[in-house]
Amino acid sequence: MRSLVLIGLIAxxxxxxxxxxxxxxxxxxxxxxxxxxxxxxxxxxxRDLKKMADMGFEFTHFGEFAWAQMEPAEGRYDFxxxxxALELAHKNGLKVILCTPVATPPxxxxxxxxxxxxxxxxxxxxxxxxRAHYSWSSPKYRELTSRIVEELGKRYGNDPRVWGxxxxxxxxxxxxxxxxxxxxxxxxxxxxxxxxTIGALNKAWxxxxxxxxxxxxxxxxxPNPTRLYSGIASxxxxxxxxxxxxxxAAAFLSLQNQLLKKHLSPKQFVTTxxxxxxxxxxxxxxxxxxxxxxxxxxxxxxNKGVGPQGFRMGDPWRISFANDxxxxxxxxxxxxxxxxxxxxWGRINPQPYPGVVRxxxxxxxxxxxxxxxxxxxxxxxxxxxxxxxxxxxxxxxTESTGGKQYRQFMxxxxxxxxxxxxxxxMPAEYAARTTAILYNVENLWExxxxxxxxxxxxxxxxxxxxxxxxTLSVPVKFVRENDDLSPYPYxxxxxxxxxxxxxxxxxEKYARNGGHLIITLRTGLKDKNGHFFEAPWANTIRSLIxxxxxxxxxxxxxxxARVSMDNKTYTWNNWGDMLEPGQGAESWATxxxxxxxxxxxxxxxxxxKGTVTYIGTDTDDGLLEKDVFKKVYTxxxxxxxxxxxxxxxxxxxxxxxxxxxxxxxxNYTLPLSATVLVGSSAxxxxxxLVYR
Length: 692
Ligand code: GAL
Prior knowledge:
Blueprint: H1 2-16, E1 30-34, H2 42-55, E2 59-62, H3 67-70, H4 80-91, E3 95-99, H5 107-112, H6 139-156, E4 162-166, H7 181-195, H8 198-205, H9 235-261, E5 269-271, E6 273-275, E7 293-296, H10 318-326, E8 335-338, H11 356-366, E9 371-374, H12 401-417, H13 428-431, E10 435-438, H14 441-449, H15 458-471, E11 476-479, E12 490-493, H16 501-512, E13 516-520, H17 539-545, E14 547-553, E15 561-565, E16 568-572, E17 576-581, E18 585-591, E19 600-607, E20 610-615, H18 623-635, E21 647-652, E22 655-660, E23 666-667, E24 676-678, E25 682-683, E26 688-691
Parallel strand pairs: 1-2, 1-9, 2-3, 3-4, 4-5, 6-7, 7-8, 8-9, 10-11, 10-12, 12-13, 13-20
Antiparallel strand pairs: 14-17, 15-16, 15-18, 18-19, 19-20, 21-22, 22-26, 23-25, 24-26
Helix pairs in contact: 2-4, 6-9, 9-14, 11-12, 15-18
The structure holds beta-D-galactopyranose (GAL).
């Protein structure tokens, strides 16, 4: 059975790496950097692009903020400057990712058609002079977008100098909700399509609560929390609003993609660069793009990392998470923006740890990324991001610390390419641990509306599970509801609050057929409208987990309640489910204090040929969860490789990559058969080891 699962798994992983016309496998990854010809003296373009190529870059990135230069007046296009810049890039051996410039409408556009602007929660229109301030829903904006996109497509769609396309820039509105008239109208239409009748909407939204009944769709407005001062009557209306906004963003991208594709050579890809931080859009909804990419900034004073210098390196799992999360579309991804050094927009903007930029590059490489692009080549002299590092400093020629690290990485990468052997299979022992995480952003939206404790943070919860798996050197795949789970030996279902009974049935089938499920607290409590089921508490998962959830509790973040497993004690305060195991279910961990001392916190059972483990509590340090995973893997016959804190190991294309994000030197135990290609087994903080 196990070997069959493994063969299926390896086949599925190979399938994900399907052939594509955009990336040559032997290149492994290609490195590029943003350049803004429109912002620099044309007399310097050749010098800058030459320098870029000399440093080892293989592509550059143009145009995402240049609408005003591309169309200086309505219907009057000027691409002469872009033609010249493209020619110089080509001359210097650099491919180009070209962008649709729709994130920054020119001033003539917003003055003539102010209805294209986002209306903010306070009723004010967004102002010209920023970016991402246009409405996804505005018919006028869609029309004007279509025109510029078609112009670009016609002009450069068959231009061999253009490698591929980026739509927009970080589509997200940076978390702002659009209350424009166009968005209000589009929301009503979206609801009408979804529910058909107002009666169905009233039922789904639960409008019998607080006199919320609607008589017609025309009465509905987008819920605006800043005007709902005593809370919201219908949480479902908020979830629908988030679904609607995410659909609008995806539709706006799809519109551009479809228009471009009419003119593009099949060799040019179309993608966009999603932000990992903003969850008001759903990258996974953009299913018609060739792939989705991401942007990553790890050091801006916003997280502590590991150890005293961790704040200069970032969270160890951050890049790996994005690598795994964004390759779910066609098994391809790349990082479109990777932090080059110090940035300007953080709470504080510390210097990254010496060498860590190169370490990020290797970490990105390790995730199978097809390209890695840095933001940006030159440090800006003016504008809203002045203190932001580039590959070169304010003089335009001196390589920054980040620039030097890129140069080093690109030299090392060129050497590594010589060792590439096509079709290297993933080592069986590593593959055997492969664990899928089932994810749907709608659960994040829903739990954020009624979090139940100020400590609830669904994103942090998901990251914690991901990080826990990585510390056990587990390859992780993200999967969605309708994906086939059977290729994966282990599946984690973290805080999956909204389910359908059919979905839970699929989970049960998976376990009965030999899969190992790890389900956590806050799973299966609600239906897809966010209503509780009219049944005993958590009834949908009761027979699956083999236990009853008697109640749950949550404590203040300053309190430390205890839970024990195998004679070890752990502390928790975020959330605790009190479980009563049924027949055949074992209690693995129990609460050690509070009035429910002795009640189970973790349950494990066999089901058919597989197992189900339910984790009912949430520790801040993740240590209990880590020990539960160790128990699950070892009790199901799979070895784990526990890594020191802050160390991340990934495998790709025959290469092992080890990154040390901790503040301490790490001595990594290499297998006897290993050939070291980069670094050594003594890995300094922010250091890298690559071996075969
Ligand atoms: C990104 C954005 C870029 C630039 C960069 C600065 O989020 O897409 O345009 O602003 O941040 O770090």
